[in-house]
């Protein structure tokens, strides 16, 4: 009978191993994040180079997930072509075997406690003493994460050995390999780390708790389970990211399903022909074989496979509402669509501001799917939509446009550009808003509540202007709001420099409030200019521009 203590010890070992992987990833990304990204960007112009780059970077970063998430960003922004991205994924799978080699060679050949405990103690104490922004802190974090791999592995190894002594686990080897495949999928999908799954299987092999073929099946399951993280990361992203995730899933599923039925011949090939009799090393060799087989299978078909994926997940209404329906050259329709898309874009920006300043109770004008997104995803969505609208505008410029048509399009794209400026200023102000909102200092909290009421007034007014049909009163309403913003900003500046306003604040707190006020003012200004460009006629806009300028 397996003791509850051993079960929890295995679970703790998996958790510590995963924590070590996470610390390794974070430390290495901060130590060499930009060089790695530049390396990938430079070496993914050809499929073969992309495979090598994916393998090398994954081996160094110790995580295929980190590399694949970088790949999502590159493909999504158009820096890497789909077929080269797929090639990089194939190489990334090869790179993951480096962790397995470390576990197999060091983890079971030496006394893990003699290796891990000194490194854990020294690195952990160093992290407590060092500046969090220094490279030495990140190096200490790297070594602590590396030592955690072996602490976790030691927990798994000793717990599994104890289980074997208490219970005969050999009967489980008679179950179908498909069951072990499913186990590998489920475990990896749950813990989101294929390296931890494989380390656990290696510990089971070392303790003779499982035979080689069932272990191979679990590894194949882990290859499928690890694709779930990419699916989650791309689920609410743009179409290009969904294509990358689908490609990764299809490649891993196809390879796993092809190999699951020929495990016996592969077992003989590794153990008899190659002479790898130690099951721990045999499993690592099998993992390498799986990933090399993937390259051989898919490399000749990367271009058509990439084209197949490019036809999936066409841009939907969740990205652009109007402009994706218009072909380049349809001048009048393009202008109307761009105006509607710009209005939709500005409504998203105002909804984003409501979310930042906890004004969700105000009536929302646009789709609920945006309002259900986490606030970080809302900003990313706004950025992507801004890029889509800009790309549409650039395409329209290639057409033969009349001067008045070109001027209209220019005003609408100016509205979108100013809306993006507003979103960026709101994002920059959000951190200061959190500090002020959570402050125990009454003056700081009071300043936040006052600014929140100001934001509420401005957003409500702009939303009313955006939602109503253009009237003769629109220009007057915008001018009135313009004067209100300038008056309030002038008053706030005078108030901030009064002794009574700052006497209970230190230098950092004063600077925070001044910067916060400036970011809000910049957001107001940008939103007002955006609505002006969107709704006013050329003559009205010119009169607006002749008003006394904004305070700089």
From TrEMBL:
Membrane topology classification? Multi-pass membrane protein
**What's in the GO CC field?**
plasma membrane
> Keywords for this entry?
Cell membrane, Membrane, Transmembrane, Transmembrane helix
**From which residue to which does any coiled coil extend?**
none
Q: Which GO terms describe its biological process?
A: sodium-dependent phosphate transport
InterPro entries reported in the protein's UniProt record:
Na/Pi_transpt
What name does UniProt use for this protein?
Phosphate:Na+ symporter
Give the source species.
Answer: Lacibacter cauensis
């Amino acid at each position: 009978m397996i003791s509850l203590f051993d079960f929890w010890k295995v679970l703790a070992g998996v958790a510590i191993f995963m924590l070590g992987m996470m610390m390794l990833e974070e430390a290495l990304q901060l130590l060499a994040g930009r060089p790695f990204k530049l390396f990938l960007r430079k070496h993914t112009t050809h499929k073969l180079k992309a495979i090598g780059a994916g393998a090398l970077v994954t081996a160094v970063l110790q995580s295929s997930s980190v590399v694949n998430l970088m790949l999502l960003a590159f493909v999504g922004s158009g820096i890497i072509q789909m077929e080269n991205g797929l090639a990089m994924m194939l190489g990334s799978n090869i790179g993951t075997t480096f962790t397995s080699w470390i576990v197999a060679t060091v983890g079971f050949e030496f006394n893990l406690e003699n290796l891990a405990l000194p490194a854990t103690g020294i690195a952990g104490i160093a992290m407590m003493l060092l500046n969090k922004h220094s490279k030495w802190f990140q190096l200490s974090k790297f070594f602590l994460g590396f030592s955690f791999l072996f602490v976790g592995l030691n927990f798994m190894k000793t717990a599994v050995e104890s289980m074997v002594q208490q219970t005969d686990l050999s009967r489980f080897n008679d179950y179908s390999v498909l069951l072990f495949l499913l186990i590998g999928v489920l475990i990896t999908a749950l813990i989101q780390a294929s390296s931890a799954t494989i380390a656990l299987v290696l510990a089971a092999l070392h303790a003779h708790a499982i035979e080689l073929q069932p272990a191979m099946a679990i590894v194949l399951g882990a290859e499928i389970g690890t694709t779930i993280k990419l699916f989650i990361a791309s689920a609410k992203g743009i179409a290009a990211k969904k294509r990358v995730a689908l490609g990764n899933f299809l490649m891993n599923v196809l390879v796993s399903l092809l190999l699951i039925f020929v495990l016996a011949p592969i077992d003989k090939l590794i153990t008899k022909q190659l002479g790898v009799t130690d099951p721990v090393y045999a499993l690592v060799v099998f993992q390498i074989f799986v990933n090399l087989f993937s390259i051989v299978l898919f490399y000749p078909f990367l271009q058509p496979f990439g084209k197949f994926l490019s036809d999936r997940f066409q841009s939907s209404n969740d990205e652009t509402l109007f402009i994706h329906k218009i072909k380049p050259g349809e001048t009048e329709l393009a202008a109307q669509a761009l105006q509607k898309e710009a209005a939709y874009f500005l409504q998203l920006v105002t909804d984003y501001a409501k979310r930042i300043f906890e004004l969700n109770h105000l009536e929302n004008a646009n789709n609920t799917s945006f309002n259900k997104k986490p606030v970080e995803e809302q900003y990313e969505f706004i950025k992507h939509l801004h890029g889509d609208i800009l790309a549409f505008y650039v395409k329209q410029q290639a057409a033969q446009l009349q001067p008045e048509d070109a001027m209209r399009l220019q005003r609408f794209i100016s509205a979108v550009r100013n809306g993006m400026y507003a979103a960026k200023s709101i994002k920059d102000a959000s951190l200061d808003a959190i500090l002020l909102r959570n402050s125990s200092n009454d003056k700081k909290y009071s300043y936040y509540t006052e600014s929140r009421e100001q934001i509420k007034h401005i957003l409500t007014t702009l939303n009313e202007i955006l939602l109503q049909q253009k009237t003769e009163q629109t220009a007057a309403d915008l001018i009135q709001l313009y004067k209100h913003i300038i008056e309030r900003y002038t008053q706030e500046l005078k108030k901030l420099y009064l002794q009574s306003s700052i006497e209970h604040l230190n230098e950092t707190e004063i600077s925070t409030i001044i910067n916060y006020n400036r970011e809000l003012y910049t957001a107001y200004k940008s939103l007002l200019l955006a609505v002006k460009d969107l709704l006013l006629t050329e003559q009205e806009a010119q009169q607006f521009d002749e008003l006394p300028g904004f305070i700089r």
